[in-house]
From TrEMBL, chain A:
The keyword NADP does not apply. The gene is 20195771. It comes from the Eukaryota. Gene3D superfamilies: putative rabgap domain of human tbc1 domain family member 14 like domains (1.10.8.270), Ypt/Rab-GAP domain of gyp1p, domain 1 (1.10.10.750), Ypt/Rab-GAP domain of gyp1p, domain 3 (1.10.472.80). Pfam families: RabGAP-TBC. It comes from Helobdella robusta. Residues 29-253 form the Rab-GAP TBC domain. This is Rab-GAP TBC domain-containing protein. Keywords: GTPase activation, Phosphoprotein. One of its GO terms (cellular component) is Golgi apparatus.
Automatic annotation (TrEMBL), chain B:
The keyword Isomerase does not apply. Its main location: membrane. PANTHER family: DRAB11-RELATED. Gene3D superfamilies: P-loop containing nucleotide triphosphate hydrolases (3.40.50.300). It comes from Helobdella robusta (Californian leech). Keywords: GTP-binding, Lipoprotein, Membrane, Nucleotide-binding, Prenylation. This is Ras-related protein Rab-25. PROSITE patterns: RAB (PS51419), RAS (PS51421), RHO (PS51420).
Length: 322, 211
């Protein structure tokens, strides 16, 4: 709405932007027009001081370019070829329903970003699903350069220098995101295991009936929430919803780790009634793997977020929760 | 939605699909359970699950099939899913030799985590890629022979042998169950199965030996 747009507009014009103010404003959604710059600010990629933004961006983009020069050629070396091969296997299978991601230029950008990130982070390396996590950054930052609908946009029509900027920005923001959840991807994925246990604990407090129902039919959380954690719900929700979700995650302290937990709890319990209608393990699992969210929009996400906020408020100080 | 009771079956068999990333495990599963194939299906994260029932010798066998992610990093999590499995399809891509070379590792993985009597099928998938074949059938058959595996080649894309592969797996499991090969799994119990992080293994609903 207009009032919100105005608020963003005036905030953006301040020479040294108040990040806390920006987070407050962004929590409930960022207008798409401002999203590219707001996300970069919230990621900590772009400095709040306007007069430094240009310099920092140039520097960071150059730095990424240097990484490419330094590392990209190593992809055929024996110790790295498995990483490269895995990325190459995953890219053609990424977001099959969105034509944008089938374009060669787009897949090459993803390939380079993910490969460079992987070899600079050997503790985890590339883990399947990280490619999904780059897609929101890519679509949001691409919007900086185009005004038409992006699903079918021909990326090749952009200039080379724009593409390079886009690629570097994706790299740095994806890095910021992954830095916060790296224990999700290190050996045995301890971050995911911890959060799955926390989720189970939380759901047993807020929806004991559902919890009993799942237990009765021997449905284990790891069987269906592993993907929720590894891919941050990106397989469960349409991309447009994820973009809205990330407005909030980026505005939260530790959004992709601890707040995500509350979102998962709100998400699961939203289907409580429907799940309780299923009377055996098989049908429960089938539903849990294919929750009906295809038609979801901002409205549904907003409700989940409001619920998650309430949960965070009630439980974040409680014992056994952080 | 009206109330539906649990589906009836005589036996419930848990089968796992394992093998390198991109060899076509998910498509074998979707071909068998839904008769669908998707050239660009999303990569599997963690595990995915589907079921289908078939009839063998007048008995209804329900196959509960767990499709696992191929990447090494998920192994610590996915190996837990082998517990209670009575059948495994070890899949490689006939057009990618490296995926066949890794079969040794997958087999070790099974030996370490699964029941000793698990039925193992070696499945060479993607036979539709004739012109790209990199693994000879004879080599794979010989490997299977040496390691006591059932060998079959399939194409999830054109459906060749997919039905047959799962049928063979389930038949063999059924035979072994009938011969009481699975001493460690819970044959004959319909309730009070130990709580594992898996669904129970084999359920004989009508032929409970406690009765």
């Amino acid at each position: 709405d207009k009032a919100k747009l105005d608020k963003f507009q005036s905030l953006m014009l301040t020479p040294s932007l108040d990040l806390d103010e920006l987070k407050k404003l962004s929590w409930s959604g960022v207008p798409s027009k401002f999203r590219p710059i707001v996300w970069k600010l919230l990621c900590g990629y772009l400095p709040a001081a306007q007069d430094r933004q240009g310099i920092i961006l140039d520097k960071k983009r150059q730095e990424y370019h240097n990484y490419l020069e330094q590392y990209y050629s190593t992809r055929h070396q024996e110790i790295h070829q498995e990483t490269h091969r895995q990325i190459q296997i995953d890219l053609p299978r990424m977001c099959p329903s969105i034509p944008l991601f089938q374009q060669e230029t787009v897949q090459q950008i993803f390939e380079r970003v993910l490969y460079i990130w992987a070899i600079r982070h050997p503790a985890s390396g590339y883990v399947q699903g990280m490619n999904d996590l780059m897609t929101p950054f890519f679509v949001v930052f691409l919007n900086e350069y185009i005004s038409s609908t992006i699903d079918t946009f021909k990326v090749d029509t952009l200039s080379r220098s724009d593409l390079q900027k886009l690629e570097a920005d994706c790299y740095w923001c994806l890095s910021k995101l992954l830095d916060g959840i790296q224990d999700n991807y290190t050996f045995a994925q301890p971050g995911i295991q911890t959060r799955i246990n926390q989720l189970k604990d939380l759901v047993s407090r807020i929806d004991a009936t559902l919890q009993r129902h799942l237990e009765q039919h021997r449905v284990e959380y790891i069987q269906f929430t592993f993907r929720w954690m590894n891919n941050l719900l990106m397989r469960e929700l349409p991309l447009r919803c994820i973009v809205r979700l990330w407005d909030t995650y980026l505005s939260e302290q530790d959004g992709f780790a601890s707040f995500h937990l509350y979102v998962c709890a709100a998400f699961l319990t939203k289907f409580s009634t429907q799940l309780q209608r299923e009377r055996d393990f098989h049908s429960l699992m089938m539903l849990l793997q294919n929750l009906p969210t295809q038609h979801w929009n901002d409205e549904e996400v907003t409700m989940i977020l409001a619920e998650a906020y309430k949960l965070k408020f009630s439980f974040s100080g409680a014992p056994r929760h952080f | 939605m009206s109330f539906q009771g649990p589906e009836e079956y005589d036996y419930l068999f848990k089968i796992v699909l394992i093998g390198d990333s991109g060899v076509g495990k998910s498509n074998l599963l979707s071909r068998f359970t839904r008769n669908e194939f998707n050239l660009e299906s999303k990569s599997t994260i963690g595990v995915e699950f589907a079921t289908r029932s078939i009839v063998v010798e007048g008995k209804k066998l329900k196959a509960q099939i767990w499709d696992t992610a191929g990447q090494e990093r998920f192994r610590a999590i996915t190996s837990a899913y082998y517990r209670g499995a009575v059948g495994a399809m070890l899949v490689y891509d006939i057009a990618k030799h490296a995926t066949f070379e890794n079969i040794d590792r997958w087999l070790k993985e099974l030996r370490d985590h699964a029941d000793d009597n698990i039925v193992v099928l070696l499945v060479g998938n993607k036979t539709d890629l004739r012109h790209l074949r990199a693994v000879m059938s004879e080599d794979a058959a010989e490997y299977a022979d040496r390691n006591n595996l059932i060998f079959i080649e399939t194409s999830a894309l054109d459906s060749t042998n997919v039905e047959h592969a799962f049928q063979q797996c389930l038949n063999e499991v059924y035979k072994r169950v009938a011969d009481r090969h699975f001493s460690n799994v819970n044959i004959g119990q319909t309730t009070a199965l130990p709580t594992t992080n898996l669904q129970s293994t084999i359920l004989e609903k009508k032929f409970c030996c406690n009765s």
